[in-house]
Predict the 3D structure of the following.
Amino acid sequence: MRKLIAGNWKMNGLRADGLALARELARRAAATPLACDLLLCPPATLLAAVRDAVAGSPLQLGGQDCHTRQHGAHTGDVSAAMLRDAGCSHVILGHSERRIDHHETDALIRAKLAAARDAGLVAILCVGETAQERDAGRALDIVSRQLAGSLPDEMSAGAVAIAYEPVWAIGTGRTPKAAEIAQVHAHLRAELKGRLAAPEAVRLLYGGSVKPGNARELLAIANVDGALVGGASLVAADFWAIAQTGS
Ligand code: PEP
């Protein structure tokens, strides 16, 4: 399966640095075609500028969250329809930082996935256990529960990707062992059977301290169909190096 390398800029990037990063990646993508899909998820304030900066390149644009409704009296929120209108093809949903910072529940995330689907966006659903949960031997139970609770019933394989992001690996420089990632991804693939048609066509991404130095090994693991990259996606050379290992 063609891999997806997604960059989650989080709450980083003022106009000048965001534009420089997007332009540099677009320049590289124009000069050297990649064999993977490359997605940039800047903060909402930069969506339009980044869209214009990467226009004509194969780089895709995504949001980092959306509301459950497409419009209405929800001050400060952005809807899936608005993301689509701004040029997005994807939206990250259920990231652990939103689950923690904004107390997002599986039920809320499920409603957001439905909104993303209805707006024609591909949802990147994040699941993953804490260190405490892994130490207690509950990693598989946790991702099963999150998947069951946050994946709507009527999803097509092309409308969703699942990102396995162990909370303890995000921004820490630590990653699970390859065998641990393989186990969770095989488990997720099995759990998708019966939930939607063509479960083998759903991209399963790994996220958590993916860097140029470990990307090749991580992307070679069975059932790892791409990466969700945080910190390293803010440095053009690093994100590009990761993308090349995914090609
Ligand atoms: C993330 O937040 O989705 C992430 C994977 O971050 P990092 O790559 O910095 O660990």
Notes: Residues 8, 165, 170-171, 207-210, 228-232 surround phosphoenolpyruvate (CB under 6 Å). Residues 15-31 form the longest helix (17 residues). The CA atoms of residues 129 and 142 lie 6 Å apart.
